[in-house]
C-alpha cells in the first residue's frame, strides 16, 4: 500500500511522469526527451528515479552510449500508454461539450508534404483552436503510428497495416516527367520497358521499392526496374534534376503541377501512372477522438480546396 499511496498522492504529477517515461522510451534518450519537453536533464532523471521508486522496478538500463527499456520497463510502458490513452479518451469524450478543443496533437508526414502543405495547414488549425498544441515530425521513412505514439500520419500511397484506420484525404497519382530538352536529346519512351534504356532519377520515398517503378496503364500493371546515376530521398531535388534535363522522374502530380504549367517539365508515358492517394492514418483506439476527427476533417478540407491544397486536376492531362 505504501507504493500505491506514494504514486496516487498527486495524480497530476504521476501522469506527467508517465508521459515523460513514454517520451524517453520512444526517443531512447534522456537528453532528447528533456530537450523536446523543455525540461532540464537533471529534472528528468530525478522524476524517472522517483517513478522507479514508486513502482518498485528499474525502468531503464543506462550506459554511456544509449538508454534501453528493461523488461519491467516494457511492461510498465504498456500500462503507462494505456493509462494515458484512457485519460485522454475521457477528456475527448466530453470535448464536443466544450466550446474549444485543447490538448496535444502528434502528427507525422513526409518531408515535402509536410513543409509545403501540412505545416501551413496545421498553423491555420491552430489559429482556429488556440488551445491546441501541435507537434509535427517530418520523416523520410514510414512512421510507426502506434509504436511512436503519433495521433495522425499523413502519407502518400497504400496503407498496408491492418490495425490502422485510413481516412482518404486526396485522390492522386504519381506520373512520369522529363524536361523538354531531355526528350529532345533522348526521345520519349513509348512503353514502360523502354525506361530501362533511359536515365531515371531515383527518389526513395517512405513506402516505395527503390529502383522499381510500378505503373498501371491500358494493359494493366507493370513493374520496371530502372536505373540512374543520381538519387535522393527528397522529391524537391529529383524534380530539380529533371528540370535541368538529367533524366525521367516519377513523382506525385501535385509535386510537379507548377513545373508542368510552366513548361519546365512534360509528361512521358502519359497513359501510365501509379496510384498515390493521400491518407490520414490513425490508430484504431484513437479514431473516435474529437480532437483528431476535427484535425482530419480540416486537413481534408484544406488539402482539397484551401490555399495549400494539392493540385491534382487541370495539369498533365488530368
From TrEMBL:
Gene3D superfamilies according to UniProt: 3.40.190.290, Winged helix-like DNA-binding domain superfamily/Winged helix DNA-binding domain
Pfam families: HTH_1, LysR_substrate
InterPro entries named in the record: LysR-type_TF_proteobact-type (IPR058163), LysR_HTH_N (IPR000847), LysR_subst-bd (IPR005119), WH-like_DNA-bd_sf (IPR036388), WH_DNA-bd_sf (IPR036390)
Residue stretches making up the HTH lysR-type domain: 15-70
Keywords: DNA-binding, Transcription, Transcription regulation
BP GO annotations: DNA-templated transcription
GO terms for MF: DNA-binding transcription factor activity; sequence-specific DNA binding
Top-level taxon of origin: Bacteria
Assigned protein family: Belongs to the LysR transcriptional regulatory family.
PANTHER family per record: HTH-TYPE TRANSCRIPTIONAL ACTIVATOR TTDR-RELATED, HTH-TYPE TRANSCRIPTIONAL REGULATOR
Protein name: LysR family transcriptional regulator
Organism in which the protein naturally occurs: Paraburkholderia monticola
Organism phylogeny: Bacteria, Pseudomonadati, Pseudomonadota, Betaproteobacteria, Burkholderiales
